[in-house]
Amino acid sequence: MKDIVISRLGELVEELAKEDEQKKAWEDFLVDFAGVCEKTNFKEELKAPISNLLQHISEKELSNGIGLLHAKIENFPAVEIYKALTEVLGEMNRENQMRITELRDILAELATPIIRLWQDVLLVPVIGTLDSQRAQSMAEKLLESTAATRAKVVIVDVTGVPMIDTIVGGFLIEMFSAVKLLGSDVILTGIKPEIAHTLVKLGVDFNMVIIKRDLESALKYAVSISSEDTGRKLLNPKRGNEDED
């Protein structure tokens, strides 16, 4: 098999491709194939050459090329090559899925940043459409950050959110409740009429969350809470130390 492929290399390459770049890719593949075709681990050895070839031609072109080689060369191991191709494509698909997952995680981080404004104040500016998956991810990140920073105030700004449905609204209510259980005040700002309607329909306990018209008002209120708390600690250092323990 090796001698046949090498002796007919030029002829086979001319039939397999028209463009110079693809001809060179097929030539490299056939040389690699000739070098490994007699090895016992032939299929594994062929994966790298197949991956390299797929950088220059499509999956369909490769499949057609294997069929042509099978017709031109007696006893050409087309079945084994197809098996190797299937495994290579499976590995490539898994790698692509991993990249997609990583990119999705990065986008989630960018889409819902948690900003520490002061030692005791966190800001969560929410932008874009909220679905249940994103809302749940946001809740998990916020609770982790609130616990880690021991924040006293969490501002959730939904100015950039066009609409919140009842399912996402339910996630937000659970998140507000959990943040309150951690000992933090929740300030919700930037509410549109549509969002307000959804929250009322869900029966939000407005004793659980502080509502402010815009981010400026929310920041002023957060500063006042933080200042009052600092003042109490200065007047009563012992009490302040107890809070930090």
Briefly, what is this?
This protein has 245 residues and is an alpha/beta fold. It is built from 12 helices and 5 strands. Strands 1-2-3-4-5 form a 5-stranded mixed beta sheet, with helices on both faces.
How is the secondary structure organized here?
Elements (H helix, E strand, L loop, with lengths): L1 H6 L1 H8 L3 H17 L5 H4 L1 H7 L5 H14 L5 H34 L3 E4 L2 E7 L4 H18 L3 E8 L5 H16 L3 E5 L3 H9 L8 E3 L2 H21 L1 H8 L1
Parallel strand pairs: 2-3, 3-4, 4-5
Antiparallel strand pairs: 1-2
Fold and architecture overview:
The chain starts with a helix and ends with a helix. The chain contains twelve helices and five strands. A five-stranded mixed β-sheet has the order 1-2-3-4-5, with helices on both faces. The longest helix is centred in the middle third of the chain and has 34 residues, at 78-111. Strand 2 (121-127), helix 8 (132-149) and strand 3 form a beta-alpha-beta unit. With 245 residues, it is an alpha/beta fold. The protein has helices at residues 2-7, 9-16, 20-36, 42-45, 47-53, 59-72, 78-111, 132-149, 166-181, 193-201, 215-235, 237-244; strands spanning 115-118, 121-127, 153-160, 185-189, 210-212. It is 66% helix and 11% strand.
